[in-house]
Structures are given as structure tokens and as C-alpha cells.
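Weekly puzzle thread! Below is a chain. First person to post its structure in C-alpha cell form gets bragging rights.
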Amino acid sequence: MPVLLEALKGGDPHARARAACWIGRIGAEARDAAPALVEALEDEASVVRAGAIAALQDLKPDPRVVVERASAILRSERAEAATAAAWALAGLGPAARPAVPALLDAVRSPAREVVEAALGALEAAAVEDLELVPVLLEVLSREESRDFSGLPGLASPAAAGLARRAEAALPVLLERLRAADPARREEAAGALSVLFEPGLGVGERAKGALERVLEDPEPRVRLRAAQGLWRVAREPAAVAPALRRIAAEAGDAALRGAAEGLLREIEEGSGG
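Winning reply:
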């Protein structure tokens, strides 16, 4: 074991990766090597980080050894290290529960790979949907284009995570649609379009809510609803009048431009 631990700190990344692999193969008898493997999650070489993650899963160490240090690595400015830490925590399953605060912070990362890994760890830790949904909504709102050009699809990790929690998310979004703050209503309208996806079971309720939002007093909120309805339902009769009203009333040039652009798309698609 001392030889492998020494190799884990060596100059050759492939040698370090092999050392991690061999430690993992030893299994439970090598649990004392867990702290060194956790430190290897910050290795500059991806092959070493991957080897450390796999080895930790094979060792099944005391979760406390992994949670404390991996939670700190999650806050690293290096996305690759934070990602590796999140996947290592995912390997702990429910035992990673003490790391949930750090993982929730990691979901807010601007780095896509960190968000994906953190969501994977939170799911493995069996975090309650109602605890995670507000964070997903926050991230989804940040991902929405600020020039009103569109909405994130399920390619977004936050959107995909929200879709998997559609039943829990819908009541939260319906409540936000009643908020006094137009920004909150706009965020909710944008997120609702994610819940249209087939098989989620809440599509019709989400659609009905967005149709009602087309009457919102704020043009930017109506635009988000129109974008969502058109992207999924493709019903020009419902969307086009709302867009014409936005184009006529909105004081924001970007907002008017987005409404006019979508209206042209609808008119071209429906033959004028």
C-alpha cells in the first residue's frame, strides 16, 4: 500500500491513475487510502480524477472521510475538480446527505458539467424534490436568454432535473405565477414550458396555466408564455394575438423584436 500511495503522488499522470486503479482493486482492505483518493479528485489529469472516483466506489470507505473534503472541493474554482468531487459524492448514495448544502450551492455553478454532477449526487442522496425544485428554478432562470430570444430546452441540466420533478414543480410554479414581482412570474412562465414534455403527466395543466399567463399585464411575462406555448403546442390561434399585442405595446426594443420575430415564424409556418 505505501508504494501505491507514493505512486498516487508521482509525476506521471498515467502512473497515478494506475495507482488509483490498483487501490480500488484491493477493495475494503485499502480503506485507509481513502483520504489520498479524495485529494486526487483535484488532480490536473482527468484520467487520475476518474480513477480516484472509481476507486472510492470500490473501497466503500467511511462516508465522513469523503463528505468533508469533497464538500470543500465542490467550492473549487476549477470546474473539473468540483465535478469530480460531486461524482465521488454521488457514489456514496444517501450517505452523502451531509454534503447536500454544498451540492445545492454547486447546482448554481456556471459550469454545466458541475451542475450535471451535482444534480446526480443530489438524486443519489435522495434529496426531497421540494428542497431541490427552488434551486433548479433559480438555475433555469439564469439560463434563459436575457434578450428574450428563447427558452432552455431539456438539454439544460436544470431543465431536465425540473422535468423529472414535474409533479413537485408544478404547484411551485403556479404559486409563482401569482407573485407581485413580474420577474418571478416571468421565471415561472419560462419554466412551465419545460413541463410540457411528453410523459410527464402535467402537460395539460402546464399548458392551461400558460394560456392564462397570456393575459398577464406585463409584456415580458406574456412573451415567455407565448414562447413556451408555441415551442410545444404550436397553436397559432392562441399565441399570435398575444404577440401582436406585445409588439404594439412593449417599450423595450429587444422585447418587441422577439415578439415580432416569433410572430413572423408563426405566420410563415401557418401560411401567412
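Puzzle host: Confirmed. Bonus trivia for everyone else. The chain has three domains: 1-61, 64-127, 128-272.
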